[in-house]
Amino acid sequence: MVVVFRRQKCLSFSCGNIVDNLLIQGCEMGEKSSRDVWSNFLSFMRGQCSRAEYENWIAPIQCIEDRDPITLQVPNVFVQGYLLENYHEALTSFFPKDKKGKPLITFLVKEGKERVKVAHSHTPKSGEGEGSHAFRFNDSYTFDNFIEGPSNQFIKSAALNVAARPGKSYNPLFIHGGVGLGKTHLLHGIGHFVQRHHKKKQLQCITIEAFINDLVSHLRNKSIDKMKRYYRNLDVFLVDDIQFLQNRLNFEEEFCNTFEVLINSNKQIVITSDKPPGQLQLSERVVARMERGLVAHIGTPDLETRVAILQYKAEQIDFTLPSHIAFYIAEHIYHNVRQLEGAVNRLSAYCRIMNLKIDQGVVDSALSDMFQAPPRAKVSVDRILCSVSSMFNVRESDLRGNSRVKEVAFPRQIAMYLAKELLRDSLMKIASAFGGKTHSTLLYAWKKIARQLEYDEMLRRRIQMTRHNIEA
Ligand code: ADP
Ligand code: MG
Question: Which of 142, 148, 151, 181 most suits a substitution to test ligand 1, by most atoms within 8 Å of the C-beta?
């Protein structure tokens, strides 16, 4: 086989230096055998991926035929899929491609009982049986430590319900929302509760990444039946960050089978995700089954809840946080609870080390780089009403009024939803800007629209366009 390295093509990779070196080598040496190209490919891959990834996925592949096309032996089809899915571009740069642009490689799946050594342990550890699935919940992620507010009250009570009666209330419970808003916290909260109150229940909490690692380890160790038995005998299965299962076809199938076996025998499943089931690229059957359970959104906490979280976190570390300072911080950090937590920790350390008494200036010095840019000054209730009025063809004065006619009431609810999403004021203040509505009317409208958005694609698009106009 003749493989001449093409400089142009390979330079598109991020680790250009490695490829450059290989290119120079290649050009100097002229033609190369398949085995040489394979070993150059391996050098390239060492620079591309982490050591663990390399050892677990790439190193077990062997070049067994030095002919054209090259023949690679893989321990199982998952490794083959992984290589093709993740390194297609690299493969087609090193090896010839067919007319459809696929790399011309023959794969052979290794037979026999020989075990391939797994280089690095992962969490959970490589599968040598049920004992390897031990999981430790984060001690502070309990229901008691979870501060409630309008954005998470509903989901917290659903989680409590599920924990109290696993498999008998909502199944599956699907929690979705942005980063750092408490999804994992609630998942572990359920885990703690089940551990304490249903001691006999078989419980497993796992991130999708750990599930995949577990699956790979068991495949390597030819103990896949053991793994299936383990997962399919669970009473409560808590799955974190399911979005990482998307586009991982080979793993999706095993996960979906486990999901179906458990759900069909009324075993409790709780899933967290950064998006609702309908937006996940997963098997339609499983998505449909997820939607038949309880799908609940966890939103960004409003100002009052952010203040309560700050005060609670400060209390936990014996740090005195005056109320006006808590408000000041909460007005500037609003997307993410994890950042609120970080702000309290940093501020407390800053005051202690510098021996300072807390005031707004101290907060600015300690936290200004964490402060999120305030919402653009232009965004106001007036602006929202103006945009909604033109998008939904209804008068602004009607939106501020009290008419319950559907054609007016629905756009008004959308405007309220957008106001809560886009403005950082307290709910009371926003509500009163809608012609003196109450805080609970605003909240009701927000919840209603948030739920409808989970399944109504058309509404989602219209709201996106309105939002775009408001923020433009
Ligand atoms: P997610 O999984 O949604 O990305 P986490 O559950 O990891 O977020 O939460 C991030 C951090 O914020 C954690 O330390 C968690 O304890 C804390 N947190 C989130 N929501 C709350 C809440 N309502 N009350 C108290 N702490 C919270
Ligand atoms: Mg999480």
Answer: 181
The sign of the CA dihedral 120, 126, 131, 134 is: positive
Residue 431 · residue 423 · CB < 8 Å:
no
The CA dihedral of 284, 286, 291, 296, to the nearest 10 degrees, is -120
Whole-structure pTM over 0.85, yes or no?
no
* Residue 302, Ramachandran bin (φ over 0: left; ψ between -120 and 50: alpha; else beta): beta
335 lines ligand 1 (CB under 6 A): no
Separation of CA 239 from chain center: 11
User: What tokens appear for 216 in the block?
Assistant: 């790979």
pLDDT at position 52: 65
* DSSP per-residue string spanning 312-371: HHHHHTT----HHHHHHHHHH--S-HHHHHHHHHHHHHHHHHHT----HHHHHHHHGGGP
Cβ(137) to ligand 1 under 6 A? no
Nearest CA to ligand 1 atom 23: 147
Instruction: Quote the DSSP letter at residue 304.
Output: H
Average pLDDT over residues 197-206: 95
Residues 447, 420 contacting (CB under 8 angstroms) = no
- How far, in Å, is the centroid of ligand 1 from the Cα of 145? 10
Q: How far apart are CA 62 and CA 448, in angstroms?
A: 56
What is the three-class DSSP state of 173? strand
Residue 191 has which token pair?
């885990």
pLDDT of 211 higher than 60: yes
Q: Are 106 and 63 in contact (CB under 8 A)?
A: no
Q: Which atom of ligand 1 is nearest to the CA of 305?
A: 23
Tens digit of each residue's pLDDT (9 = 90 or more) over 358-410: 999 999 999 999 998 655 556 889 999 998 998 888 999 999 999 999 999 99
Looking only at the bridges linking them, the beta strands covering 105-109 and 173-176 are unpaired
How far from 123 is each of 172, 206, 258, 313, CA to CA, in Å?
Answer: 24, 9, 20, 28
Contacts of 46-52 spanning 24+ positions with Cβ under 8 A: 47/15, 47/17, 47/18, 48/13, 48/14, 48/15, 48/18, 48/87, 48/90, 51/119, 51/120, 52/119, 52/120, 52/122
What's the DSSP call for residue 244?
G
Indicate whether residue 313 lines ligand 1 (CB < 6 A).
no
Contact 72, 106 (CB under 8 A): yes
**Does residue 125 contact residue 283 with C-beta atoms inside 8 Å?**
no
What does the alpha-carbon distance between residue 79 and residue 73 come to, in Å, rounded to a whole number?
Answer: 10
Confidence band for 315, pLDDT divided at 50, 70 and 90 = very high
Evaluate: CB of 167 within 6 angstroms of ligand 1. no
